[in-house]
Amino acid sequence: MAYTLETPDQVLQTIKDNDIVMIDLRFTDLPGLWQHFSVPCAALDLDSFTEGVGFDGSSIRGFQEIQESDMLVVPDPTTAFLDPFSEAQTLVLICDVVDPITGQPYARDPRHIAQKAETYLTSTGAGDRAYFGPELEHFVFNEVSYDQATNYGYYEIDAIEANWTARRTDGPSLGHKLRPKEGYFPVPPADTLQDARTSMVLTLEQIGIAVEAHHHEVATGGQGEIDMRFTTLKRMADNVMIYKYVVKNVARERGMTATFMPKPLFGDNGSGMHVHQSIWKGERPLFAGEGYAGSSDLMRFYIGGLLKHAPALLALCAPTINSYRRLVPGFEAPVNLGYSARNRSAACRIPVYSPSPKAKRVEFRCPDPACNPYLAFAAMLMAGLDGIQNRIDPGEPLDKNLYDLPPQERARVPSTPGSLEQALDALEADHKFLCNGDVFTTDVIEMYLDYKRSHDVAELRLRPHPYEFVLYYDV
């Protein structure tokens, strides 16, 4: 059920009116996984919305050391929704993290960073709202298994609609299989997941998240996409976390398993998160103008900032080893750091579906859904604002299929980093723009780099390729 609540009093009244028996308090760790704990209704009162509820911060990735573990979560009344998957009547509240000693918002709380990015936008005078509309792709499999030990490592995937199940020996095969790269977008029976995606959409709308469309995606084996309607930066990051929760749990209810892992299938398309974004002032869209593809100078400079800082951005927007299995030429992956009106091989695209100024936006195509949306959206906005403030020229548009260019001409187009290590090095060398307005602190950047290098990079150096499923299947 969707609620439109603004105050703690309204939350408490809703709990009484709807026979709520449990409160689920949720927040996001630094890498981007939702965390939660639940309290009975009697444990939540008006003071909880100002003084917070305690938890152990040392057990959360990227947060506190063990000697300073006590932390607080403060529920945000505007985020309340009824959990559609709990047996007991459970109200979910997304929370901000607070330091109990200082009483201040916690600098490593990703949601707080997103809030600071919105505040910084207003302070620059460039606009007063940043809208984000990500397209999260995902896979729904019928079965997945993986393991890693001293003497072996493996992963195995089963998907009824996939071409590799055409010759089954454990039951009847009825044909209508999706060949690799032909999943965009045939009707059932080839698309076996129509009803599952519809159920996901109806659940999202029940919670209060507006959806524009859903469809099968290019890959075989159960790749899909659900497009949420755009909204403001922090609210959209909240919606992304809810979206992932809904997709995974609807799949599980149907005896299937969903993942946002960027590249679970070898030799077929991976899952991206193309992020549409624009800046407005009041009711005026600031990206519309008389320039190329109907763009304004402000939009061109914003694109310039995205392209200049793209290598550093990808440490946050494509944050896994597995992300760089996707960011390779030939799979519609945007490895070319240029922009275009319709060229999907470029990192930045200006959609031209509608002539309306309100529809004018830039689509940054490099990110994937393994990212922490609070950090990724904030970082993209900060890169774009740096482009506006420094009037960064993005150069000439790339209106050709870059994969068909002669090698010498193609070599002149900058490319995305080829590995997570390269992206982390780029972030270490280029993060000053993120620290403008104290949006990202040096401490956050250092902690993020240290975590990724000591966890993702170090683990994959020691273990063979199948260990990626252990690390990333749950993103």
Brief synopsis:
The chain is of the alpha+beta class.
Features:
475 residues; alpha+beta; 10-stranded mixed sheet; 6-stranded mixed sheet; 13 helices; globular
C-alpha geometry: globular
Question: Which strand-content bin applies to the residues?
Answer: 15-25%
Distance between the termini: 26 Å
Can you give the helix content as a percent range?
25-40%
> How many helical stretches?
13
Average pLDDT value? 93
What is the radius of gyration? 22 Å
How many strands in all? 18
Largest sheet: 10 strands, mixed
Q: How does the helix and strand content classify structurally?
A: alpha+beta
User: Could you name the ranges where pLDDT drops below 50 across 5 or more consecutive residues?
Assistant: none
Report on the architecture of this protein.
This protein has 475 residues and is α+β, with helices and mostly antiparallel strands. Helices cover 31% and strands 21% of the residues. The chain has 13 helices and 18 strands. Strands 7, 10, 11, 12, 13, 14, 15, 16, 17 and 18 form a ten-stranded mixed sheet that branches. Strands 1, 2, 3, 4, 5 and 6 form a six-stranded mixed sheet that branches. A hairpin with a 2-residue loop joins strand 14 and strand 15. Helix 3 packs antiparallel against helix 5, helix 3 runs parallel beside helix 9 and helix 7 runs antiparallel to helix 9. The longest helix is centred in the middle third of the chain and has 21 residues. The radius of gyration is 22 Å and the shape is globular. The mean pLDDT is 93.
Outline the fold blueprint.
Elements: H1 8-17, E1 22-28, E2 34-40, H2 48-51, E3 53-56, E4 70-75, E5 81-82, E6 90-98, H3 110-124, E7 129-141, E8 143-148, E9 153-158, H4 194-207, E10 211-216, E11 223-228, E12 231-232, H5 233-253, E13 257-259, E14 273-281, E15 284-285, H6 297-308, H7 310-317, H8 323-326, E16 336-340, E17 346-349, E18 362-364, H9 373-389, H10 407-411, H11 420-429, H12 442-462, H13 467-472
Parallel strand pairs: 1-6, 16-17
Antiparallel strand pairs: 1-2, 3-4, 4-6, 5-6, 7-11, 7-12, 7-13, 7-14, 8-9, 10-11, 14-15, 14-18, 17-18
Helix pairs in contact: 3-5, 3-9, 4-5, 5-9, 6-9, 7-9, 7-11, 11-12
